[in-house]
Amino acid sequence: MNRIRLTTAFSTSFLLVSGLLGAQADSPGECDTGVKIAPALVRPDSGATTLGARFAIARGSARAKVTQSFARRYYTCAEGRGLATARPASNPDDLKARMAGGVLFVLAKVVPPKPEEPPNPGGGFDYGYLSVGAQVLGEANQRFTESLVAFRGELIYTHDQPELVWQFVPHVLLAYGLSRVTASRLRDSVGASDDNEQLFDATVNWGLSLGVLGATGPVARLTLIPGVRHFEKTGVDPRAKSVDITSGTHTSIMAMYPTSLKWISAVFAEWARGPLPTQPQRRRAWLIGVVSGT
Amino acid sequence: MHEARGSYRNIFKSANATNVTAPPSAHFWFTELSVHPYLRRLMLINAHAHVFNLQTVLSHQAVKIIGQRVRDRGLPEFVVEAVERLLDELVARPENLDENELLARFVVRIASTNSFKSFVAANLDALPVEIRLLGDGPKKLGTAALRNVLDKLSTALGTTAAGRSSVFDIYETLRIALEADIVTVADHLLGHMGPEDGLVALMMDITAEQEPKRDRANFRAQIRGTSDAAVQRPGRIFPFIAVNSKRADHFDLMRNALEKLGFVGVKLYPSLGYQVDTEPMKQVFDYCVQNDVPIVMHCTRGGFYASQQTQSFGDPAIWEPILKARPTLRICFAHCGGEEGLESAPGTVKPKTWTAEIVKLMELYPNACMDVAYHTGMMSGGVVETNYLATIQALATNPKYQNRILFGTDAWILRLTMADDSFWQYFVAKLPAPVFQQMAGEAPRRFLGLPMADGTGIRPNMQRFVDFIASHRDAVGAEPTPWLRAAAGGTFAVLPSIPGWNLKNHAHFYTYSYALRVMTPADTHLGFPKSADLPLRRLTYWIGGPGSLGFDTRCEGNALKLAAFCKAAGAVYEGEYDDDSAVEQFANVFENGDTTLAKLAATVDAVFRFASEDI
User: Fold this and answer.
1) A126 touches chain B (CB under 8 A)
2) A144 vs A11, which has greater pLDDT?
3) Residue B490, Ramachandran bin (φ over 0: left; ψ between -120 and 50: alpha; else beta)
4) pLDDT (tens digit, 9 = 90+) per residue, B421-439?
5) Cα–Cα distances in Å, from A87 out to A43, A51, A143, A148, B186?
C-alpha cells in the first residue's frame, strides 16, 4: 500500500512535497511490513531545491490474544526509514533505523447484539487503546555528520468512540529515554561532549469531527486536529546549548476533508509553529496538500 | 415488453426471421406469446447450471478432484499444480480475492512451479520474452502486464481448439467460481440472459469425509446460499439439492431443502463416489415420486470423479430396474451420456453407448429426459458437427422424445472451455428456432413443473417453490418474474440487494453492528443498505489518517475488537485462521480507507464461520 501525502508549502516551510512516510517517521509502535517509496521535491530553508525520496523498509510480526473481555497484541518491528535527496547537504530530514517491541491493549469489552435484534452496536464498555513499547533508535543526517543512538520507552493512548464527550479527550504520546550523540560536527565546533542525555517527548492532539460535534451536510465530514508537542532534553553539555536547544513546544492545527475522488482521498490545510527535536530552528509554516491513496 | 439483452437473442430473432421456415407450432409461439399477460415472450431456461461458489465446496478432497478435472482438460502440469496450490491455500485460509489479487496469485503460483521452469527452459527459443522472464521466478507485475502474460502463455500452449481449455479459461473459471457469494455467481450467468429467463441451479456435493467439520459447514453454506439466491432473483433460479449418500444425513438434508428452503429438485453425481442402486438411494427416489420431485443425474464418463472406478457409476443401464419400479419418476440424464453418442452418424444415436441406453429408457418412461450440457466437441465443425446437430434435431422433433431434450450449458464449469453466452449463441445459431425454443423453453418448463401460459398445470414441487418465495415476499431481491407473480398472487416488496451485503448473513450483520460503534451520527442514518459502500475512512478511527498520532494503534485495536466481537457472537475461525492471522487480516483492511464496509464484511465472512451458517 503506497501512502503519499503531497503538500505544497508556503512561507518558511521546509518541504515542497512531503509524505505520510515522513509524517510517520517518528511513529512509534508497530510497523507496516514492506517497502514504500515516495518521491519528493525538497526546498530547504537554505540550500538548493533538490529531488529526493522518502522511503521505509520494515518488517514486523505480531501475536494476538483475543477474548471478549481482554484483547491484546504483542509486536516486534525492525525498520529503516527517512528521506534521501540528490543533494545531501539540502536534506532537512534524517535517516532512522529502529528495533521496537511492545504490547497493545484494548481497553474495552465488546458485547455483540443478538441476531434477532435489529443491527446495533451492542453493549460493554470502551475506553480506547493503550500501547506500551520500547525501541532502540539510530538517527543520522544523510551525510552522517550528525548522528545519535537512543533507547526509549513510549506510551500511546488513543481512542475512536463517536460520542461527543470523547472528542475532547486527547490522543497522547509520551516517550522518554536515553540518547547518545555518536557524531556531531555542530557540537564538535563548540567542543561539546557526547555524554548520555535524556529526552522527554510528549505529544497530545485532538481529533474533532464536525459530524460528531453536531454539524450536518458536507461540512460534517471536516475534521480538525489541533496538537501540541513538547520536548525536554536534560543532561546536555552546557557548551552544546549554544548550537542546539534543550526544550521547545511545537503547536499545529490541521483541517482535513475526505474526498470521493479516485486518486485523492483527502485535502488538508495545516498551520504549525515551533521547533522540533531534530529541527532546532523555530519555524512557522502553512501547508496545504492532498492525500493520495490511503 | 422487455427487450432481450442477451446477444444470443438477437441471433435467435434473426435465425427465426431468415434461415428457418418455422412450422405452424413455432409460429404459434411468437404470435401467442405476444398476447399472454405474463409470457409476452418465451421464457428460456438453462436447465443445467451451477451457481455455487468454490468456497462452499472447498476441501483438500475437492481440490484433488478439481485438479483432476483441470488435468483432464489437457492443460500442462504446472497449471494443474498452480490451481491446486491456490485452492489449497484457500482451504487453509479462506479469502475473498478480487480480480487483480486472483490474477496476480495465479500467475505467481504458475511461475513458482518447477514444471513451469522446466517448460520454459525446454522451449526457450519459442517462447515470448514475457514468459521467458517469468521462468526466472515470480515477478511483481501490474494487472495489464499479468493479463498479457496469461494471454501469451495461452497462445504459447496453443490449447484453443474447441473442447479444450486454455490457461486463460482456467483463470476466468476461477474468477467466477471464487466470487464471495452465490448470488454474484448467479448474476454472472443471468447477466447475458433475458430479464425473465431462468436457470436450474444444480448444487455440488464433493463430500470430504476426512474433514467432517469443514465439510458439514461448507455444504450447509451452499444450501443456504443457493436458497437465498432463489429469493434474491425470484422466479429465475430453480435450486436442485445435491444428494450424496456418503453423507449420513443426506435424506434429512434433502427433505428439509425441498420442503422448507425452496428447492425444486434433486441433483445426483454418482461418479463422486456413490452408487444409485442402493437402499438409501431408493429411499430418495421413492420420496421424489411421492412428492413429484425431478432429478438431474450427471451421466457422462467425463466431469468430476473420485476415481477411475467411480466414473462408471453414472451408467444409465443401472437405472432400468429403478425406473421399472418407479415409472413416473422425473429424471434428466445430464449430458446425454456423453456427446460422442450423438456424433457418429447423422440423425442416429450410436449403438451401445450410454446415450443409446438413455434413449431406450426414454422410450419406456415418459418422464425420462436428457440435456446437452457441456457438449462442445462438435463445435470444431466438420462431419462431427453435422452428425451431432442432425441427431439432436431428430431426437427433438421425434414425437416420442419431443419436449424431453433439454438445453443446458453446465455454466460456470463450462467456462473451463468457453463462455456461457458463446454456448447459447452456438445452439441458437445452429439449430432451427422451433427446435431451440422447445429445448430451452417448453422442455425445461415441463421438466421443472412450471405452470403453462394460462397459469394451470403447476406441479407440486413448483407450488412449494412458489410458496417459499411468497413467504419472503416482504424482502425479495429483485422484481419477481411474471410467471411467479401470477402464481403467487399478492404483492412483493423488492429490497434491491447488494451482492455480498445481506443482513441474513451474520457476518454482515455483525460487521455492520460493529461499525456502528465507530460511525459518526450522520452516517448511522444511512441505515444498513446504504452503508455497504461506506468507505472505512468515514469511520471515527480514521481521524487524521495514516501518520496521525495513534493511527496504527487504532487500526490494530479495531482489528482486535472486531475479532472479539465476532467470537463473542459465537463465530469460530475458518480453516487455519487463528487470533494472529485474523487480526492481521482485519488490520490490513482497516488500514485501507478506500475499503468499503461490504468488503470488510466479506473479509469477516471469509475468516469466521457463524453459527447461523448451520441450517
Assistant:
1) yes
2) A144
3) left
4) 999 999 999 999 999 999 9
5) 11, 8, 10, 22, 59
pLDDT tens for A249-283 read 989 999 988 887 767 777 888 888 887 776 666 66
pTM above 0.95, yes or no: no
What is the percent of chain A where pLDDT is above 70?
80
End-to-end CA distance of chain B: 39
**What number is the ipTM of this complex?**
0.83
**What percent of the residues of chain B are helix, what percent strand, and what percent coil, each to the nearest 5?**
55, 10, 35
Closest residue, chain B, to A156 (C-alpha)? B550
Q: Given this model, what pLDDT does residue B24 score? A: 34
Mean of pLDDT over chain A: 79
Q: Which burial class, exposed, middle or buried, applies to B312 when counting CB atoms under 10 A from its CB (0-12, 13-18, 19+)?
A: middle
3-class DSSP state of B588: helix
Give, to the nearest 10 degrees, the angle between helix B60-72 and helix B77-92.
160
CB pairs under 8 A between A and B: 194
Nearest to B565 among A30, A112, A227 (CB): A112
**What is d(CA B50, CA B204) in angstroms, rounded to the nearest whole number?**
8
Q: Which of B469, B464, B497 is nearest to B485 (CA)?
A: B469
User: CB A202: neighbour CB atoms within 10 A?
Assistant: 16
Beta carbons of A221 and B540 less than 8 Å apart? no
Q: Which residues of B touch A67 (CB under 8 A)?
A: 564, 567
